[in-house]
UniProtKB/TrEMBL annotation:
Residues 1-18 form the signal peptide. PROSITE patterns: CARBOXYPEPT_ZN_1, CARBOXYPEPT_ZN_2, PEPTIDASE_M14. GO terms for cellular component: extracellular space. Keywords: Carboxypeptidase, Glycoprotein, Hydrolase, Metal-binding, Protease, Signal, Zinc. Belongs to the peptidase M14 family. Its cofactor is Zn(2+). This is Peptidase M14 domain-containing protein. It comes from the Eukaryota. Residues 37-334, 443-734 form the Peptidase M14 domain. It comes from Clastoptera arizonana. One of its GO terms (biological process) is protein processing. The active site is at E304 (proton donor/acceptor), E704 (proton donor/acceptor).
Length: 1272
């Protein structure tokens, strides 16, 4: 019967198509309608990928999630300047194939993507649409169901196979329902389907404005609500607050459809004008369109597009023409109503402000940039905006028409924060105006008084306190910490650890006194004040009253802004003394006793939240405190949303801070909302708050508590009243987000399991009891837990906006190596076999030779002067100058042999992956040649007598030492290695080593670090399974960094080290696990090089200029061209760059180049003959002597510096690039570099016969000359 009726409908459609269907333009491109067919999910992914390659500025693929059967849920974004949405451009989405057997919408969205892309800049209407809307097309929310469905079946199969997902669940009944009670929804959440959770997260985390949900089985446009709280099954409307605009939107689609608008397209169903209220048709509980409207800003309509659920593919062109105008017109409806921004007094957008239409209880919330869009039916409305911490705007009257979008901006002013309502009192004792049960004395406490008060508290309140010391200052003063907890002295599983640290700068004393007052306040009010009791019972609090007691003792009361007492007794600024993610300098090269004590303390307890209390300003400062360029400018951490909440929590609770007003000493310094990103304010290297975030689970802010560093004690009562509430409220934020336990199936806690959060590039680990805490902003997240030896597990969770938090526990199943190898390593059993010893040189060579024999077109052995390598690349015997050449060295550091085994496994992985037709590896080897050098030192076993985890003695590494000291003549292996690297002109040298888990580069602060930062991020991004506590990861040995620098100078190649493990020496039995953890980051690192610039340098006659040199503006590194075809290759991050191309006897050529994501920019550079003779000093002078550069600490050249040979009457002046050359006889020499405004630097070097020694001076600014930096 269905088939008969469907044929009748097709006949009607043919008639309509030949007479009534209009086209958008006679020039429209629709060649994609030839040979119609339905694409499988794999074909869909490849098709979208092809679209992004064909239209890189218009199309971008998104992986929204995975289905039950691990099929990817794809979405294609189409927009002008895709991926970089302009302010005010609304986001639209179509979602189809929610029911797997309702397939028409799936293919129509594929056609729509082609139509929009192919007709952009061809049809004016399409161009305008793509320019003005950010469009997302999801052809299939249920790929598993689609795979189980059968073409030509107009009804669902038995048991609704295909309609439901692989678990047999109807996805359009699986969403939270507004009319169900809260308990029911929470229980249902625990079993929600992965497809549902994926799209819920997508909806909640993106500011979609309008959406269409495409179904099949009827011909109608259905609008909210889909159900009611009446208990009925159908037949009565359930009206939403926006019923009028929903009817307009539904009619827009139906009116442009040649059949739908008639309302009788399918048998036995009549819909007035082709639209219906969902509940009136039949009630759907747990539907997606209502979820969009209730839980986000998005208005969604459900479109039923065909009477037959899975029509034959031959009908697809006809169905496209029936729906084309409707699909496009509905997207255009996104411009109905009002849009604008909600702005503060500085014209900055206010996030999460409410936009309210009087008389309508649907609230729209602004984006993080303050944008909003409010769809409205034509009419006159009064609209206003409000936001927490701001004065509500007056209502604005606006007339909405159907012809255009009305623009309406709101400007809000900051209002004082509300005082709030104090919690209920348990047994309220009378307190004074400051909140104390017993009167306290507001006074400054020197070290003796401080210690006395802390001991009194520890004795008097022994049931909730513990006084302990984490170490001593330079002068032997104890660094006292007062613990306050209902169970002092032990970590309670499940209870988070909090810390306040004060007086890091000895003359900034307000925080010191505030913590003493806070300690008394908490102790006095425990068990009498409900709020304080809850804080103490549920948080383990640690108060480090003074981190710099020595500095305090020399500071002076009344000091507003001096530096007296600021540093410790060794004159080190402790907030410049921590290991830093970007810089090792004179301030943090050696940690002071106070710093070491705090670092050890930080890593000894599972701290979750912290604040570092300072003085000299009034602002809450959040990470990061510096950036790679060391120039003031915003540098946000991956958890910026959370840090903004934390900073605003403190600032908004403070009666003055949130106003952002300047301090008298700095009248031009204003902070919007009383908060600031550290790096945007001014650069701090070696700061404590960044160290906390980068190396531990702890999030820390720096709170500047007042404009004066050491105020008179008469001011202390005011400071207490201003900071009491912020101090308490900030502690309470520790419960935000999620918390729980990770256990094995046996119920045992799993320590050091890694907790990952979707779309946030920052991991934390579980504590010894398997407990964890992850502070998060409100939203929907996918939480993944992994640990070696266990199968990873993911859960999606909705985090509310509040401090109640969500409990989320994980139970992990053990896994086996064989299963992992099949899934991740192409089934290579060798790579995960148990090991009891390292392979020797002969055994490794045999493995590589066998590899070459099995794949002679892919792998080629290269032996040059005792250095054995194997090159792996596509078409290995063909010319490959235009490929990136990467060297991977396994055992440059002999005491760290893990790299030998990992590099061997990497070679096997690449070869087997190519054999298995892995697309990622095929692309990698088509663009790159990977040279594996697993063991350069055949005597490596002789250096393994000391097999300790940490091996800092460089004498165990003779090859690396010889390279670092440029004493190649005394070590044949190092000499051969450098010769090999230089002869092969590698674009990148990767040294595999131990001692950490990051990528390390030889220099900081230059444009070349743009390249290095790309490598670091690519490695870090997927380095998620290394769960060891690498607290020493930032303490990179200077000599090892100098090895990399020497490789770069001696060979001209970029050089980095990929650190494999916290240990220098890894026991052999751990190698299979290490390989598992490092395979993803290593592959990501290798593939990251295939982005950048490849150029060919010729003269006007087309002759290759083989002596040409290329430099990036702002960098001193020289990129040399290949020997035959003068090709240069530079891997680069995304961005715009200026290149300088030089060649002897040719004019200097500057050119601008743009690098886009995952693309190689190909250029040809033509140099013109120069009429002038020029000479450019080279680092590679053939004469005996010393060549090098003089730079400042930011790696900028220092010109006109004086470079002298001490005790000899020899000196030269550096040129504009900071370079110099001094011819010298062989022997030892002392070289000094000096420049105006800098401290001089001296180095001892040895010169050899027949070549120059390369050195680099980094001069430090003389602060006494240039003045002190901004100190706070």
């Amino acid at each position: 019967m269905w088939i008969f009726n469907y044929l009748i409908i097709l006949c009607l459609i043919v008639h309509v198509f030949t007479s009534d269907i209009e086209t958008l333009d006679i020039n429209e491109e629709e060649s994609f309608l030839k040979s119609p067919k339905y694409l499988s999910n794999d074909e869909l992914g490849l098709f979208f990928e092809d679209q992004t390659k064909k239209f890189p500025t218009l199309a971008k693929v998104h992986n929204v999630g995975t289905s039950v059967n691990n099929n990817t849920i794809w979405a294609l974004e189409i927009s002008k300047n895709v991926g970089n949405r302009s302010i005010g451009v609304p986001m639209f989405k179509y979602v189809a194939n929610m029911h797997g057997d309702e397939t028409l919408g799936r293919q129509l969205l594929i056609y729509l993507s082609q139509y929009l892309l192919e007709n952009y800049n061809v049809l004016e209407r399409i161009t305008t649409l793509v320019d003005s809307v950010d469009i997302f097309l999801m052809p299939s929310l249920n790929p598993d169901g689609f795979a189980s469905s059968m073409e030509g079946h107009c009804d669902s199969l038995n048991d609704y196979v295909g309609r439901s997902n692989a678990n047999g669940v109807d996805l359009n009944r699986d969403f939270p329902d507004q009319f169900k009670d809260k308990t029911y929804n929470e229980a249902m959440f625990l079993t929600r389907q992965p497809e549902t959770l994926a799209i819920m997260a997508w909806i909640v985390n993106n500011p979609f404005v309008l959406s269409g949900n495409i179904h099949g089985g009827a011909l109608v446009a259905s609008y909210p609500y889909d159900d009611s709280n009446s208990g009925r099954d159908c037949c009565e409307e359930s009206i939403s607050p926006d019923d009028s605009i929903f009817k307009d939107l539904a009619a827009t689609y139906a009116d442009h459809h040649p059949i739908m608008h008639k309302g009788d397209g399918c048998d036995n169903e009549k819909f007035t004008n082709g639209i219906t209220n969902g509940a009136k048709w039949y009630e759907v509980r747990g539907g997606m369109q209502d979820f969009n409207y209730v839980h986000s800003n998005c208005f969604e309509i459900t479109f039923e597009l065909s009477c037959c659920k899975y029509p034959n593919s031959s009908t697809l062109p006809l169905e496209w023409h029936n729906n084309k105008l409707s699909l496009i017109s509905f997207i255009e409806s996104i411009h109905l109503g009002v849009k604008g921004q909600v702005l503060d007094e500085n014209l900055e957008g206010i996030n999460h402000a409410e936009v309210i239409v009087e008389g309508n209880n649907k609230t729209i919330y602004t984006t993080e940039r303050g944008e909003y869009w409010r769809l409205l039916h034509p009419g006159v409305y009064k609209i206003y905006a409000r936001a927490l911490g701001y004065t509500q705007s007056a209502p604005s009257t606006i007339t909405v028409t159907k012809d255009k979008t009305e623009l309406l901006n709101f400007h809000l002013t900051v209002s004082p924060p509300s005082k709030g309502i104090l919690p209920e009192i348990i047994e309220k004792n009378s307190t004074d105006q400051f909140g104390f049960v017993q009167q306290v004395k507001f006074e400054h406490h020197n070290y003796v008084k401080m210690a006395e008060l802390l001991n009194i508290l520890a004795v008097e309140y022994h049931n909730i306190t513990r006084l302990y010391s984490i170490g001593d200052s330079v002068k032997g003063r104890s660094l006292y910490v007062l613990e306050i907890s209902d169970n002092p002295g032990k970590h309670e599983p499940g209870e988070p650890e909090f810390k306040y640290i004060a007086n890091m700068h000895g003359n900034e004393v307000v925080g010191r006194e505030m913590l003493l007052l806070l300690a008394q306040y908490l102790c006095q009010n425990y068990k009498t004040d409900k709020r304080i009791t809850q804080i103490v019972d549920n948080i383990r609090i640690h108060l480090l009253i003074s981190m710099n007691p020595d500095g305090y003792e020399v500071a002076k009361e009344g000091d507003a802004d001096s530096v007296t007492g600021r540093p410790n007794a060794n004159l080190f600024d402790l907030n410049r003394n921590f290991p830093d993610q970007y810089v090792i300098n004179e301030y943090n090269k050696i940690q002071q006793p106070e710093t070491m004590a705090v670092m050890s303390w930080i890593h000894s307890l599972p701290f979750v939240l912290s604040a570092n209390l300072h003085g000299g300003a009034l602002v809450a400062n959040y990470p990061y405190d510096n950036n790679a360029n060391q120039v003031a400018g915003e540098n946000n951490s991956p958890d910026n949303d959370v840090f903004l909440i934390l900073a605003k929590t403190y600032s908004d609770a403070h009666p003055k801070m949130h106003l952002g007003q300047s301090c008298p000493r700095f009248p031009k310094e204003h902070f919007a909302g009383g908060i600031t990103n550290g790096a945007q304010w001014y650069i701090v290297t070696g700061g404590m708050q960044d160290y906390n975030y980068i190396t531990t689970n702890c999030m820390e802010l720096t709170i500047e508590m007042g404009c004066y560093k050491f105020p008179y004690e008469s001011e202390l009562p005011r400071y207490w009243l201003e900071n009491k509430e912020p101090l308490l409220r900030y502690m309470e934020q520790i419960h935000r987000g999620i918390h729980g336990f990770v256990r094995s199936t046996e119920g045992n806690p799993i320590a050091n399991a890694t907790i990952l959060v979707s779309n946030i590039d920052h991991k934390i680990t579980t504590a010894i009891d398997g407990d964890y805490w992850r502070i998060l902003a409100a939203g929907v997240y996918t939480i993944t837990v992994i640990h070696p030896g266990y199968k990873g597990h993911s859960e999606q969770v909705i985090v509310p906006d509040g401090i109640e938090g969500v409990s989320l526990n994980f139970t992990l199943l053990r896994d086996d190596m064989r299963s992992w190898a099949i899934e991740n390593d192409f089934g290579i059993t060798f790579n995960t076999l148990p090991m009891d010893h390292y392979l020797n040189h002969t055994e490794i060579m045999k493995e590589l030779i066998d590899m070459e024999k099995s794949q002679p077109s892919l792998a080629l052995s290269i032996v040059t002067d005792k250095i054995y390598s194997i090159m792996i690349t596509d078409k290995v015997g063909a010319p490959n100058e235009d490929k990136f050449h990467i060297a991977v060295i396994g055992d440059l550091f002999s005491s760290e042999p893990a790299g030998r085994e990992i590099s061997l496994r990497l070679a096997k992985h690449l070869v087997r992956g190519y054999e298995s037709k892995n697309l990622e590896i095929i692309k990698l080897l088509e663009l790159s040649a990977i040279h594996i050098l697993p063991c350069i030192d055949e005597n490596v076993d002789l250096h393994l007598s000391n097999k300790e985890c940490v091996m800092e003695d460089s004498s165990h590494n003779p090859v690396a030492m010889a390279i670092e000291k440029n004493m190649l003549e005394g070590n044949e292996i190092s000499k051969s290695l450098v010769s090999h690297l230089r002869d092969n002109q590698y674009d990148l040298v990767i040294v595999l080593e131990g001692g950490g888990s990051s990528v390390v580069s030889p220099s900081e602060g230059t444009m070349v670090d743009n390249i290095y930062s790309m490598f670091k991020q690519s490695y870090k991004k997927l380095d998620v399974i290394d769960n060891q506590d690498c607290s020493n990861d930032k303490k990179y040995d200077y000599w090892k960094q100098d090895v990399l620098r020497s490789i770069q100078v001696l060979t001209g190649s970029l050089a980095i080290s990929a650190r494999l493990s916290c240990c220098n020496y890894v026991p052999p039995n751990q190698i299979p696990y290490l390989w598992r953890s490092k395979l993803p980051p290593l592959m990501n690192l290798l593939t990251s090089i295939n982005q950048g610039i490849i150029g060919h340098i010729i003269n006007e006659n087309g002759v290759a200029l083989r002596e040409a040199i290329v430099q990036i503006s702002g960098s001193m590194h020289q990129f040399h061209v290949t020997r035959d075809n003068a090709i240069f290759k530079i891997p680069l991050n995304v961005g715009e760059f200026k290149l300088a191309v030089t060649c002897a006897r040719y004019e200097l050529n500057f050119l601008d180049v743009t690098v886009s994501k995952n693309n190689i920019t190909q250029i040809t550079v033509i140099l013109k003959k120069s009429m002038q003779q020029s000479f450019k000093p080279s680092l590679y002078q053939q004469a005996s002597g010393i060549a090098g550069f003089v730079t400042n600490t930011h790696n900028h050249p220092v010109s006109e510096a004086l470079v002298s040979v001490v005790n000899e009457n020899i000196s030269v002046i550096t040129n504009f690039e900071g370079s110099f050359f001094i011819p010298l006889p062989p022997g030892g020499h002392t070289i000094e570099a000096a420049a105006s405004g800098y401290l001089s630097s001296t180095k001892i070097v040895s010169t050899n016969v027949g070549g120059s020694v390369q050195i680099m001076f980094r001069l430090i600014k003389d602060e006494m000359v240039l003045g002190m930096p901004r100190l706070a």
